[in-house]
Design goal:
Layout (H helix, E strand, L loop, with lengths): L1 E6 L3 E7 L11 E6 L6 H12 L5 E6 L3 E2 L2 E3 L6 E3 H8 L3 E6 H8 L8 E5 L9 E6 L3 E8 L4 E5 L12 H14 L14 H9 L7 H9 L3 H10 L4 H25 L4 E4 L8 H4 L2 H8 L5 H5 L3 E4 L4 H16 L7
Parallel strand pairs: 1-4, 4-8, 10-13, 13-14
Antiparallel strand pairs: 1-2, 2-3, 5-6, 6-7, 9-14, 10-11, 11-12
Helix pairs in contact: 3-12, 5-8, 7-8, 8-10
Amino acid sequence: MILAGDVGGTKTVLAIYAGRTQVPANPVYETRFKSADYACFETILKEFLDHTCATPQAACFGVAGPVKNRRCRITNLPWEISADEIKKSCGIPEVSLINDLKAIAVAVPHLDKGALFTLNPGKPDPLGNMAIVAPGTGLGIAFLVWTGARYRAFASEGGHTAFSPRDSREVNLLAFLTRRYGHVSFERVCSGSQLPNIYEYFLENKIFPEPAWLKEKLAAAADRTPVIVETALKKEADICVATLDMFVHALGTITGNMAVTLLPTGGIYLGGGIPPRILKRLTQPDFLGRIADKGRFVSLCADMPVHVILDSKAALHGAAWYGFENLKFGVPAPNQ
């Protein structure tokens, strides 16, 4: 019996699986928690275990942050999680922490066609590297490499690489954000929590007007990003359309950067909560054009398959599969 978890800045999902074949469709228990409502992850975990009375033999948690020495400080929450402390306090014999994007990467080889939306079928290499670029609360990046026997997943913090503008408007956005933050990563532009930065750039520089009805709607919203995105998709305000356009272009740039860095001839997979919500916008040719716009490597990048992951619980399922592999092989991997 495995306890699996997807621990993020917005939500935490925990599930119990009785066996590997029960992943993904048949958890014994599954519960979603709003992360910000809890002071620490251990409180959620103990609440879940008390409610389910489960006694898992192993646990694996995909966590939104870098894992070092079996510990993780969650990037967008004041949480620090220790695999060893969980092992002691909860009595779970084996506990692993892996980066949440690594968890999604573990899930990718298991995804069926119904869990994917293909933007570019490309020319896939069946044993080629794969890349995962996932704009959600933050911007996560991971990759998979074929070992000769199976795919092995690797985490990264590539979303924190420096934002690289491609046109004059993006250069001005970089200057705007540099004054605000100093270092400007792609995550400052290509993530759900930071998308309003683009909107504010247009607003403060008076590039587009802000309709009064939109101003009121944004002021009343707990999260402005869904309002901006929905308004853009409906084409109800130019400032929102331009915001989403710049988001998509920047996402295409970072994805293209990963294409030439990781050479994912086996496929590029867009995860996170945002791509499934903006599928209509991603199907427009400028997004794939940004990915392939790599000078002498245009043809190479254009041949790489590009898919959107539709399974909103891919990180949870990947953590479960990873947990069963750990249980099978006996010990957690180093630093996890």
